[in-house]
Specification:
The protein is an all-alpha fold. The protein has two domains: 84 residues; 90 residues. The chain contains six helices and no strands. Helix 3 runs antiparallel to helix 4. The radius of gyration is 24 Å and the shape is elongated.
């Protein structure tokens, strides 16, 4: 498992480096995301337009590869973390891992919305409305995911939480009886 984690971390770092270098190279060529959105012609493609769109697709797939590696690392970290939690029922491990993935998705969604909102809002005419709609949709989706993750985590740790509550109440009753 250690070798897999090291390999995934190295792949993530290498992909982030490639992504950063490609974005840096695009900035020297004066090609950025808003210009890519405005570069799509109505009448046909030029070589530069096709190249720009190809580079954008490549960037997207590199980012997707980074996300998939991060999700696998979340799985490994979740399994390791769950082994060290006292009172945890191992039968509920898949549901906890799913809940942690949902929290990770919310985190990635927040990053994606914060990056894309300025780009979308720069579209003339409808950009402001689209960015508001995207933000509200992402917020509602995040609330649903976080509620589901919280419910799943609570169900998995319900016995541990109930034991903790019982200990706290017994401790409080013992202190009241002493006074």
């Amino acid at each position: 498992m250690k070798r897999e984690v090291e390999g995934r971390l190295l792949r993530i770092l290498a992909n982030i480096g490639i992504l950063a270098l490609m974005i840096l190279a695009l900035s020297f060529l004066n090609i950025n995301i808003p210009s890519i959105l405005t570069v799509i012609p109505l009448e046909g493609f030029t070589v530069i337009t096709a190249l720009t769109l190809m580079i954008t697709v490549i960037l997207f797939f590199i980012a997707l590869r980074i996300i998939l590696d991060l999700i696998r690392l979340v799985d490994i970290a979740s399994n390791t973390l769950l082994k060290h939690i006292p009172g945890f029922n191992p039968d509920k491990s898949p549901s906890i891992i799913r809940a942690l993935k949902e929290v990770f998705i919310v985190f990635l969604l927040a990053i994606a919305i914060s990056i894309t909102t300025p780009l979308v809002s720069s579209i003339p005419g409808v950009g402001g409305w689209l960015s508001i709609a995207m933000t509200i949709t992402a917020f509602v989706f995040s609330l649903i995911l976080l509620y589901d993750a919280g419910k799943t985590i609570y169900a998995a740790f319900e016995t541990s939480i109930q034991t903790l509550i019982d200990k706290i109440t017994m401790h409080n009753e013992e202190n009241r009886n002493k006074i």
